[in-house]
Automatic annotation (TrEMBL):
The lineage of its organism: Bacteria, Pseudomonadati, Bacteroidota, Sphingobacteriia, Sphingobacteriales. It comes from the Bacteria. Keywords: Membrane, Transmembrane, Transmembrane helix. This is DUF748 domain-containing protein. The chain crosses the membrane at residues 12-36. It comes from Mucilaginibacter rigui. Residues 579-596 have a biased composition (Basic and acidic residues). Residues 579-602 are annotated as: Disordered.
């Protein structure tokens, strides 16, 4: 069949025509490619210049254009500012606060429509992909300079002579290397991010979208994801890691997973630092309706709802730390919101779920550690703000928290903080469910040298109103059958003092047998200036518990005196015993020497 195909003249003519058409098509495509490539380059460069008031230029080493596939590949792209233009803008008072620079080795444009672009001035592209781009931001001021000389036209108005429409279906940035240089502080601050991806969908610049506030940078949605971020504290004591950070401009949700703040080994930490040691892990944090635009412009934090789900927080008290002598008002939560957080803060609602908190402390006498635990914490915090306009409407922050004390009994807490009161007014009340009182021995024994041998807590309730200096309120501690042992550092029982405590000082029941009226503690507590917030709260409650148990200041003093007396007697016994043992050893030694001398004489 193939050998007879070209025997007829018409077949040869047809083959020649087809070949000519194919050749002409190839030549036409090559001519169009070579013709459109420089036209496209010129249009893009012109659009960048006009769109940025000549501040930025774009260049690339080569452009491969395939008209039939609607594909273009650009190599060695550089998008950078013109420093001379920027200097002129600064002189005129219209310079932006930050400058941007972009370097990309290869950029791929696919599903483009070159003829629509050339004949109708419409840039319509299906996808743009940038692999491993390098982005640098240099920040020179917190805000852009706003003057009358500044061009107030929209981006579309600036480029409308070159483009009637710009539409890109999808823009992908993968494995971004991001660096920011901040020149606004006393020293140059540099931060870097790697393994970051950005996906922008439905970028549209036309007469309709130029004023569309639902779009971010003219895109329907921009999703940013940062993976495996880690940094180290300048002191070398902590490392900070985040598994993933993802932001969607369409949903305004910021999702963070795998947050870890880890200190170095405990012994090494306390050799180098006099501060408490912290460990933090959070599985996930969701910032809902996060105003990322205000945060980007002025570092203002505005969140409708923050949800923290599953994790733990551990505090290890520094046993090498010097006693604080300064006022620890700085540890109060409402002081921190007002003064410690430099940025403008507004969190309408903070929900916490499935968190565990452990406080650990060393008793230098016993050389043992006590661990205070609160398990499965959940809570809701409302109106966490330092914004003046918000405080005028509502200056009260509240917290409702539920946890399991020592992992056993349910504890309900309610806090109220006045966010702009001069005396730092706050209040708290709570209820602890029934539990065996011996469940607190893991923290009570190492820290207080007291062991609860028997007793059942029926309820623990408190209602306290405080300022930074004074706390007043009531404490109710209802229990039955309380018995204790007073311990030595090796946890052996001090028999005489234990008997004294149980027989004379402690009240074994509240209410007492035959008395229907329980003992309540009316607390008035003056805060020592060097006491931090949670230590103040604990001491107020501890004093109330002691008073309900019959251990007031006088009884506690008597018990301490008896303990000191017994300790002295025990020390005297130890000394006498050691002296007697030494005398016995000396006597044996003399007898041995005399015996040896007698043997030699014989």
């Amino acid at each position: 069949m193939a050998t007879t195909f070209l025997k007829h003249r018409w077949q040869k003519i047809l083959l020649i025509v087809i070949g000519a058409v194919v050749l002409l098509t190839i030549v036409a495509v090559l001519i169009i490619n070579s013709f459109l490539a420089p036209k496209l380059s010129a249009k893009v460069k012109e659009a960048v210049l006009k769109g940025t008031d000549s501040l930025y230029t774009i260049n690339y080493s080569n452009l491969d254009l395939n008209i039939l596939q609607g594909k273009a590949v650009l190599y060695d792209i550089t998008f950078k500012p013109d420093t001379a233009v920027y200097s002129q803008m600064k002189k005129q008072g219209g310079a932006p606060g930050s400058l941007y620079e972009l370097h990309v080795k290869r950029l791929v444009i696919s599903n483009a429509h070159p003829f629509e672009f050339y004949f109708k001035k419409k840039l319509n592209v299906g996808r743009i992909t940038l692999n491993e781009p390098e982005i640098q931001i240099s920040k020179y001021a917190d805000k852009d300079t706003d003057t009358a000389k500044k061009d107030k036209r929209t981006l579309y108005q600036k480029i409308s002579k070159s483009f009637k429409l710009v539409h890109i279906g999808e823009i992908l940035f993968t494995n971004i290397n991001y660096k920011q240089k901040n020149y606004t502080g006393p020293k140059l601050a540099i931060s870097e991010l790697k393994e970051m991806d950005i996906k922008a969908t439905d970028l549209l610049i036309d007469s309709a979208t130029q004023t569309d506030t639902t779009r971010f940078l003219y895109c329907k949605d921009v999703t940013t994801e940062l993976k495996n971020y880690n940094s180290k504290a300048a002191s070398g004591l902590y490392t900070f890691k985040v598994k993933s950070v993802k932001l969607s401009t369409q949903t305004k949700n910021l999702a963070i997973t795998g947050i870890d703040l880890k200190p170095i080994d405990r012994a090494a930490f306390f050799e180098k630092s006099k501060k408490d040691r912290f460990t933090l892990h959070i599985d996930s944090a969701q910032l809902k309706n996060f105003d990322y635009i205000n945060y980007q412009k002025s570092q203002s934090i505005d969140i409708k709802k923050l949800v923290i789900d599953k994790g733990y927080f551990e505090v290890f008290s520094n046993y090498n730390g010097a006693l604080q002598t300064t006022d620890r008002l700085v540890t109060f939560p409402h002081w921190a919101i007002r003064h410690a957080i430099k940025a403008t803060l507004n969190i309408d609602t903070l929900d916490m779920k499935r968190m565990n908190v452990v406080y650990s402390q060393l008793n230098k006498t016993s050389k043992k550690f006590g661990h205070l635990k609160f398990n499965n914490i959940s809570g809701r915090f409302l109106n966490l703000t330092n914004r003046a306009d918000k405080l005028k409407k509502n200056n009260i922050a509240t917290a409702n928290i539920t946890s399991y004390f020592m992992g056993k009994a349910k504890l309900d807490l309610h806090f109220v903080f006045n966010l702009n009161d001069a005396t730092y007014n706050y209040a708290y009340k709570g209820h602890l469910a029934p539990m065996n009182m011996s469940d607190v021995n893991p923290v009570l024994m190492p820290l207080s040298m007291v062991k609860i041998t028997d007793g059942r807590l029926n309820s623990f309730d408190f209602d306290i109103h405080s300022t930074q200096k004074l706390s007043k309120g009531t404490v109710s501690f209802l229990y039955k059958g309380l018995k204790v042992d007073i311990l030595r550092p090796d946890y052996t029982k001090k028999t005489l003092i234990s008997a004294l405590a149980n027989a004379v000082i402690l009240k074994h029941d509240n209410p007492d047998d035959g008395n229907k009226t329980p003992r309540l503690a009316n607390e008035v507590y003056i805060r020592p200036a060097n006491f931090p917030f949670f230590k103040t709260v604990w001491h107020v409650l501890l004093n109330g518990i002691k008073n309900c148990a019959g251990v007031g200041p006088a009884q506690e003093k008597k018990l301490n005196q008896q303990t000191n007396t017994e300790d002295k007697k025990e020390q005297e016994k130890i000394v006498k015993k050691a002296v007697k043992e030494k005398e016995k050893e000396d006597k044996k030694f003399k007898e041995a020497v005399e015996k040896k001398k007698g043997g030699k004489k014989g």
